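Narrative of activities, Objective 1.

The group set out to show that a structural description can be obtained from nothing but a protein's sequence at a throughput compatible with the screening campaign. Below is one input-output pair from the validation batch, recorded exactly as produced.
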Amino acid sequence: MAREAGLWLHGLHPVAAALANPARRLRRLLLSPEAEATLAARLPQPWRIAAERVERGRFGTFLPEDAVHQGAALLVEPLAVLSLERVLAHDNGPILVLDQVTDPRNVGAILRSAAAFGAAAILMQDRHAPPETGTLARAASGALELVPVLRVVNIARGIDELKAAGCWVIGLDGAAPVTLAQAASGLSGRRPALVLGAEGDGMRRLTREHCDELARLPIAPAMESLNVSAAAAVALYELVRHQPPD
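Output recorded for this entry:
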């Protein structure tokens, strides 16, 4: 059977979040009887699209073999990419910049933390970053519908745009002379943008040079580094802790 055009989201959290997102264009909703009852309890009907009731064995026709779908799959169109100007005008939360973070599960987990701590957006490069996929959406547990993902051709130029818009750009680097808490305490009301590099290599040299400041998380010497998604969660908490209340 030919694959249908669009993107299949799978799992109860991603499907419920997409159904609730008016900006998401929906094409087809497949639910097992059990998943339909669970989804209806979580998101009262009527939904924006009628559900097709299917048995669990049929999901393999539409989804990858290893997809953890929980009896729910939704065919959608990719979200429209917003402009940086629009995001900055409508949300005063911090911005996350990902420099060649390529694992969709890591990006999904970072999106989940971004939603939890009120980040305005995630900025990634067009290349060397995962596209919008069911795997990424599943790892994000609904946060893909809540946090805009901005894509730029060049990360260094994207950082320059953030700086021109008044953001203070902090690169997370384990060898930095100050901690993130120290850097965050000196923001004086400026909107922070936090740059995280790929696991292992970290930020690229040009990316590092375009940051306003480098800062580190004060982890124990016995542990060299954190997983990038764990580092993002800790760093976002630290930034939010130092932001003045609205």
